[in-house]
Specification:
By secondary structure, this protein is an alpha/beta fold. It has 18 helices and 18 strands.
């Protein structure tokens, strides 16, 4: 079987990008603001300017780190069942994360997100077949900021069994979040052997790893929890305006983080990810649905694949504010390109408004798109030998179709993707009879249906107690959340 493929960089350009990124780290360096990381790097012969926190990385240090970075990361659900292997051209979809606002599916207004939105979103994603992982998709405005990172993980672990892409907002909260994961797995050893969560870590362009992000990747490496590096160069703003220049910067920033994780623990799991943007000089915005952003994403993913490291990208999002045609074509283009490219973790389902707004309707629609993409990357398979001659030989004056043929009944569900009723494939008369509904209205119906059908799998009593203790939120009203 031939898997559909796409390539945006030549082999020569990939090597040139990596070579120049290594030169940047060796000659210019990166800014590392974390003391533990600085000490590690100093112990391994990196050149350190303590006052400026600038670190120059010897080429052999980078090469050694690359030699120990793993090429595969398995993900497991809450019950310990493997969900996917992040490697090669395997793909896995998860929602876009850390939205500050939601598109209210009842009023159509964009507003601040609260706990109820997070819980409803998690319940919906739990039931979506093709979005294999959860993300801590929304930041709840109704809890103290110092709790928001661990609060999101707490809710996800209660209401979902899927693996989770998350991240820290405060250095001090990693320990509590790790305790939550251990409470589910049973031990630190089991958590390391069967990863349940991925922690995003975002370097600050250009070429800076903050104290927070360094500590996140250090703590994750010690625990054997995968880190997902999310480098975010913006062309012409905090990165070169050329797409290739931004890819070089992305490569340098990501390599710096890779070295730190491998110094902490050789073979520590990491993902070559990102969320760059082709900065819009007219509006001063960071369009994630821009075709240039998509090309930039594909380019840095090719670098990660060249280095044989699991990859990630934010693709399948739109910058529009509602579920309109722009949302459809930007999401469709980005998600399909990511699937064809074989991006291992594809983030972005549900996202609108420059990666700031989550839509529960859109994530339901995007699930259908993800199903289509899984079908597309399967390519075309030969099902019979001969392929068709024996079927065509059966046509005569009496036999004019194959609708009830054994061959049709055997293969039509396997060779074709059959979407749910959310996708309009009916006649015009049928559409009118069903109320002339738009896809947004059908998505709202689906949301309401899924909220009614959701059934929470109870956690063990001791696990729940450990989660509550790790959250350490005296004002928590657990019974109200579980209603």
């Amino acid at each position: 079987m031939l898997r559909p493929a796409i390539q945006v960089l030549t082999e020569e350009l990939k090597k040139k990008v990596i070579s120049e990124a290594k030169e940047i780290l060796a000659e210019i360096g990166a800014f590392i603001e974390n003391q533990e990381a600085l000490e590690l790097l100093k112990e391994n012969d990196a050149e350190i300017d303590i006052e400026k926190h600038r670190v120059k990385f010897p080429p052999d240090l980078i090469e050694k780190a690359l030699s120990t970075a793993p090429s595969i990361i398995p993900l497991f659900d809450r019950e310990g069942k493997k969900v996917c292997d992040l490697t090669k051209e395997n793909i896995c979809f998860d929602p876009g994360s850390a939205a500050l606002t939601v598109l209210d599916y009842q009023t159509g207004e964009i507003r601040s997100a609260v706990t109820r939105d997070y819980v409803e979103f998690t319940k919906i994603v739990e039931q979506l077949e093709y979005i294999k992982a959860q993300s801590t998709a929304i930041i709840c405005s109704d809890v103290p900021k110092e709790l928001s990172d661990k609060y999101r993980l707490f809710l996800s672990l209660i209401f979902s069994s899927k693996p989770i892409v998350t991240g820290t907002f405060l250095k001090t909260n990693f320990a509590a979040m790790k305790k939550m994961l251990v409470a589910i797995r049973g031990s630190e050893k089991e958590l390391k052997q069967k990863p349940l969560a991925i922690f995003d870590a975002c370097p600050s362009p250009p070429l800076k790893w903050s104290d927070l992000t360094c500590q996140s990747i250090i703590d994750a490496a010690k625990a054997g929890i995968p880190s997902e590096f999310v480098s975010m160069p913006m062309t012409g703003a905090n990165a070169p305006v050329t797409i290739l220049g931004a890819i070089v910067q992305h490569t340098a920033e990501t390599l710096a983080g890779l070295v730190i994780t491998q110094l902490v623990s050789p073979s520590a799991p990491l993902i070559w990810g990102g969320s760059p943007a082709a900065f819009d000089m007219r509006k001063g915005t960071t369009p994630m649905g821009s075709i240039d952003t998509m090309i930039l994403d594909l380019g840095y993913v090719e670098i990660g694949k060249f280095l044989n490291i699991p990859t990630h990208a934010y693709l399948g999002m739109s910058d529009t504010k509602i579920l309109d045609m722009q949302a459809g074509f930007e999401t469709g283009m980005g998600a399909l390109l990511a699937g064809i490219k074989g991006v291992n973790m594809i983030s972005g389902a549900g996202m609108l408004n420059f990666e700031t707004t989550q839509s529960i309707q859109k994530v339901v629609i995007d699930n259908e798109l993800c199903g289509m993409i899984y079908r597309f990357v399967e390519g075309i398979q030969q099902r019979d030998e001969p392929i068709a001659k024996h079927l065509l030989a059966e046509f005569d004056e009496q036999t004019t179709h194959l609708l009830a043929h054994d061959h049709t009944l055997k293969w039509f569900r396997k060779d074709h993707y059959l979407p749910s009723k959310l996708i309009d494939r009916g006649t015009n008369d049928e559409w009118i009879a069903l109320g002339r509904k738009t896809i947004a209205q059908r998505a709202t119906d689906k949301v309401n249906q899924l909220l009614k059908s959701y059934s929470r799998v109870e956690l063990a009593k001791d696990s729940m107690q450990e989660l509550v203790a790790a959250l350490d939120y005296p004002a928590l009203s657990l019974n109200k959340i579980l209603e």
